[in-house]
Amino acid sequence: MKQILLAALAYLAVTLALGLALAPGGQAESAATVARTLAMTGQFLGQWTGFGLALIGVAVALERRRLIERAGPILMMFAASLCLHVGFVFLKGTIPALMPYWADPALADLERGILGTDAWRIAHALVPQLPGWMPDFYLGIWALAAVGFPIALAALDRDAQRAQRYLWLFFGAWVVVGWAMAVLGASVGPVFYDRLEGGSRFADLTAALAASGIAGSKIGAVQADLWAAWENGRQSFSPAMSAFPSMHVAVATVTALYLAERSRLLGLLGAAFWAVVMFLSVYTGYHYALDGIAATAAVLALRAAIGALQSRDLPSRNPAIYARMLRAIAASQLLRSVR
């Protein structure tokens, strides 16, 4: 876990440098961006310190003898998560500076060509009026996974190899899906399409969001803040607009895969979590369906790559496993010679 913390610190340093270098408005705006991010950091600590302490309490309740052993990893993953999310604000804000938003028409056309209609229309036809808990789920419960996943692994998972695999997958997804792929497929999503491209292609979506109450919810407030930040030509407390691929769905995919590896029941809960996040990402107009599909595929590919690297490296890191492998090979050779 020390390696992950060091990687997170390096990530924060690079993102701060890149974000400040590309911040619009010169030095004055860069200083303002630093001030806003420091304020966001304080808010982050206030909101999630309690969560970290709660996980420590869970660890104590499960096995008091291992409290000291787990306290260090928990604190390291808390710090790593903090570095990740502060850095992500800066990094995501660099997307329009590195790549102008270009992909929305292509994504909208491709989605309509595959489905025969817009994905959001299907979502609103299925659920014309969202239950009151769903907007809070999309922002709050998802944020719990987005921030708390590495802390939970440090506190609760005794399998060091599995924990390491999913921690690298979690942090890797934020870099690969949340930034690298987002730069290549720079887009704003259906909810901002008409305001960016002009026209009224998604006017019905705007009306549907108002009718369903989304426009007046916390989600609507976040969307308004994102667009205001774009119009003002600066970063805000919220990261810049970015639709492809969906980081919401990427985090849900990592969580679902991990839960499925723990037990069948947890796997069903993880699949339900993924399905709700995927549905809401389309329903709210943040994303095209293709955004979630691409994010899921990318996380699956990352997991396969990390698993392959871990399997290749495992014997050299664990002599006992290497010895068992040698014994198994020797036993198989002995059986062949007897035959």
Write a concise synopsis of the structure shown.
The protein is mainly alpha-helical and 339 residues long. It has one domain (99-338).
Polypeptide structure, described:
This protein is mostly helical and 339 residues long. It has one domain (99-338). Helix content is 81%, strand content 0%. It contains 15 helices and no strands. The longest helix has 37 residues, at 26-62. It is globular.
Give keywords.
339 residues; mainly alpha; 81% helix
What is the topology?
Elements: H1 2-22, H2 26-62, H3 67-93, H4 95-98, H5 104-115, H6 119-126, H7 133-156, H8 160-184, H9 190-197, H10 203-212, H11 218-232, H12 247-262, H13 264-283, H14 289-317, H15 319-338
Low-confidence stretches: none
Gap from first CA to last CA:
47 Å
Query: β content, as a range?
Result: under 5%
Taken in chain order, the helices and strands follow as HHHHHHHHHHHHHHH
Total number of domains: 1
**Shape assignment:** globular
**Total beta strand runs:** 0
Strand count, sense and closure of the main sheet? none
> What is the residue-mean pLDDT, rounded to a whole number?
81
Helix content: over 70%
Specify the structural class.
Answer: mainly alpha
**Helix tally?**
15
The rounded Rg comes to 22 Å
